[in-house]
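ARCHIVE RECORD
Type: protein–small molecule complex
Small molecule: zinc ion
Source of inputs: curated submission
Record status: active
Notes field left blank by submitter.
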Amino acid sequence: MAHVASAMVLCQQWNRDFQTHSHASEAIASVILLLAQLDSQVRQIFLVQGLPVPWTTQFILPPSEGCFMSLDEAHVSLEVKVNNNALKLLTSGIDISTPEALAKKEDCLHEFRRWNSKLKTYLAVSPHERGTIAANVLYLRRSYAKVMLSLDPTKGELAHDEFIEDYAQMLDLASRILEGLNDYSTVNSDSGSKPTKRHFSVESTVTETLFLIGVHCREPTIRERALELMRLYPRREGMCGTMLALSLGETLTGLERTACQTSPPGSCSEGPWVCADHRVTKIQCKDVSYQKVAILLRTAGEQRRGSEGKWFTFHKTW
Ligand SMILES: [Zn+2]
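STRUCTURE (tokenized, with ligand):
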């Protein structure tokens, strides 16, 4: 993780340098978008490692009170003003039920609603943008932000049950994006490549969403479809790769799938599909070697009984 921290400190310096140059704003906006997405991803990686984030970030965009002028502008605004700010709050270790945290979360939600209304205005006069890959990526990242900011922390893992419809819509979007990107790369490489061809991207599109659904959505059809998309379309986006996410998702799903059925009668608690007690509530990672990572999975029931949970070792394949 030391390398990641050094790389991100360097990125923060670039970010400051880029922001002092007001010319070539489109290129700078693209760089700020990527830096903000990387920062958002790394915060989640540090969180599961139980490490504090050793840098502070301040992504500054030019003030804009009017409408969006392009989908790109809307995208940068969403990633910097909503997603990154939300992740800074949610991965900071703050007790989210305190008045201070609730006020910050309300600020994020306010920014999210403002952003949504500006996007609506933009799309009303730019109908040709609807249905494009860029628009679908934006809708998917919007849904990701919405879920992240709307989950009720007092309900723990059961909170995700309220977003089954969102998860289904997000999967449809992810599926369309992946099919579109695959068609695009097939046409461009003219090699007739199969969907299983691995794909690298610096930009965040579907990986975090598929991981979110694979891990936290307990409705079995939707969950399995998320894992299936990761199997069909192996890709790495920034710091996140679908192959490790898939291995982890399969292990976690395997644990939860049989937990309720194999438990003594009367030992389950409330909750559809997988009861609250048998849901994995803690995921913690630690590096084992350059090639391997150990991941702890602990259910709410194990936590209540003072049990550590189970460690699994995975290859750091992406
Ligand atoms: Zn159970």
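CURATOR ANNOTATION: The first strand starts at residue 199 and ends at 201.
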